[in-house]
UniProtKB/TrEMBL annotation:
<dbReference type="GO" id="GO:0016209">
    <property type="term" value="F:antioxidant activity"/>
</dbReference>
<keyword id="KW-0735">Signal-anchor</keyword>
<dbReference type="GO" id="GO:0030313">
    <property type="term" value="C:cell envelope"/>
</dbReference>
<dbReference type="InterPro" id="IPR036249">
    <property type="entry name" value="Thioredoxin-like_sf"/>
</dbReference>
<protein>
    <submittedName>
        <fullName>Alkyl hydroperoxide reductase</fullName>
    </submittedName>
</protein>
<dbReference type="GO" id="GO:0017004">
    <property type="term" value="P:cytochrome complex assembly"/>
</dbReference>
<keyword id="KW-0732">Signal</keyword>
<dbReference type="InterPro" id="IPR013766">
    <property type="entry name" value="Thioredoxin_domain"/>
</dbReference>
<dbReference type="GO" id="GO:0016491">
    <property type="term" value="F:oxidoreductase activity"/>
</dbReference>
<keyword id="KW-0676">Redox-active center</keyword>
<dbReference type="InterPro" id="IPR050553">
    <property type="entry name" value="Thioredoxin_ResA/DsbE_sf"/>
</dbReference>
<dbReference type="InterPro" id="IPR000866">
    <property type="entry name" value="AhpC/TSA"/>
</dbReference>
<feature type="domain" description="Thioredoxin">
    <location>
        <begin position="39"/>
        <end position="199"/>
    </location>
</feature>
<keyword id="KW-0812">Transmembrane</keyword>
<feature type="signal peptide">
    <location>
        <begin position="1"/>
        <end position="21"/>
    </location>
</feature>
<keyword id="KW-1015">Disulfide bond</keyword>
<dbReference type="Pfam" id="PF00578">
    <property type="entry name" value="AhpC-TSA"/>
</dbReference>
């Protein structure tokens, strides 16, 4: 009796190849996995990983402008010549609330010592941002970026802030020198990144 050729091994091999190709794109992409989960936590959490960029490998200075929660405007030129820490956040983000006391303390430590802080609120209206800052006694301003995403776009060509919160350290030339992806879990690490960026100019 003639039997039809068995094609199961070939089919299985095809599936295996497809699975391998897909895993190459996403197996280590924890942010993508969180997005695909479709849960309702309202943010994609980073893992707190730190990326530092050597001075000779940094891109062009980041140029930006935006409107603060009080309605005034701000630009990258306002921070020319100093280290700038940019924190992407919004009020109902749990890790944003958790890191707020540390950011407040560190911003105050460096306020007169070579570094400024700037928030970028990616979701709220001004009233919510103001209430958050009052609750956590945060004195540095935040750009309200929910309407046009201009700040997120300005930084996307360098190290994309693809999780909230994300904290970037810009050197005195306005280039991205370091990133903390997710909650600032170790204040000491952020302090070191800022101090290193300040020291470069010295």
């Amino acid at each position: 009796m003639n039997r039809r050729p068995r094609r199961i091994p070939a089919i299985l091999a095809g599936f295996a190849a497809l699975a391998l190709a897909l895993s190459g794109c996403s197996s280590d992409d924890s942010l993508a996995n969180q997005y695909r989960e479709g849960n309702s936590k309202g943010y994609i959490a980073g893992d707190g990983s730190v990326t530092e960029i050597p001075a000779d490998e940094r891109g062009e200075p980041v140029e930006f402008d935006g409107t603060l929660e009080d309605g005034s405007t701000i630009t990258s030129a306002d921070y020319a010549g100093e280290v700038l820490v940019v924190n992407f956040w919004y009020a109902s983000c749990a890790p944003c609330r958790a890191e707020a006391p540390d950011l407040k303390a560190i911003s105050e430590q460096f306020a007169d010592n070579g570094a400024s802080f700037l928030g970028v609120n990616v979701r709220d209206q001004a009233a919510s941002a103001i209430a958050f800052n009052e609750a956590y006694e945060i004195s540095y301003p935040s750009v309200m970026d929910v309407d046009d995403g201009g700040m997120q776009l300005a930084f996307s060509g360098n190290i994309p802030p693809n999780a909230v919160p994300t904290t970037l350290v810009l050197d005195t030339s306005g280039r991205v020198a370091a990133r903390i992806l997710g909650q600032v879990n170790s204040p000491g690490i952020l302090k070191t990144l800022i101090s290193d960026a300040i020291a470069e100019d010295g």
